[in-house]
Amino acid sequence: xxxxxxxxxxxxxxxxxxxxxxxxxxxxxxxxxxxxxxxxxxxxxxxxxxxxxxxxxxxxxxxxxxxxxxxxxxxxxxxxxxxxxxxxxxxxxxxxxxxxxxxxxxxxxxxxxxxxxxxxxxxxxxxxxxxxxxxxxxxxxxxxxxxxxxxxxxxxxxxxxxxxxxxxxxxxxxxxxxxxxxxxxxxxxxxxxxxxxxxxxxxxxxxxxxxxxxxxxxxxxxxxxxxxxxxxxxxxxxxxxxxxxxxxxxxxxxxxxxxxxxxxxxxxxxxxxxxxxxxxxxxxxxxxxxxxxxxxxxxxxxxxxxxxx
Length: 309
Known about the structure:
Blueprint: H1 7-18, E1 22-27, E2 32-37, E3 54-56, H2 62-75, H3 79-91, H4 95-104, H5 107-136, H6 148-156, E4 157-161, H7 164-185, H8 188-202, E5 211-217, E6 222-230, E7 238-246, H9 255-269, E8 274-277, H10 284-292, E9 296-298, E10 301-305
Parallel strand pairs: 7-8
Antiparallel strand pairs: 1-2, 1-3, 4-5, 5-6, 6-7, 8-10, 9-10
């Protein structure tokens, strides 16, 4: 007996796959997932499977769940969350509960986890369903295109054009927070010097002469920004990045990339040709981002020609 794999049925199957205390199957005659509590003392009482109308669900064990968490931790781009998750997985004690608790402290990483898990589990369900369709003599279906991972940044964060009247105070506070972070990252006078350089760079231009984009959470928390300014002030086609940062707990989620993309598009549409990035201290992760946007090395800084084909 055939059945259509609807979104509602997919969700029910995912829930059943993760429930390790119950045995479940899909009853095509009733068009629903049926479950009962496992009898570990008497396996003979397990649910009877009739492959003509009651189908076994995709196999999903606690090992599969652990491997999924491990795979996500390897791809997690938020350094703080990634380190905590890996420590949790190494401990092996209360791993599933602790993994969930860690993610609660990083709401945006948690959303990526759910998207990651959903994508992997739906892929397994689609594979299972295609195996059934093959036995039914039906054409195989293409795997669903799932774009939640790519859409999370745009859906869960608010990106606005910089307004000095509205955003200056937030940016000024953030510059000080970032300066202290640099100061703490290096020892002694080196840290103090790098923090001072960070402040000087932001002070290159007055706030009202800057433009760019800021990012806020859905709770209206300021999370980061990218700001440009003409260089020199009389320049018509050349700007320099004066401020670019994302707060530590929100790094690795794609916010910086989205800020960069929006600002470069605005600069190009405004007739800007050259964008300079002149930070003396540039992390490796930043170099990778700059290369994605076609920046080229220029001395100790970077430059991109927005009008270059």
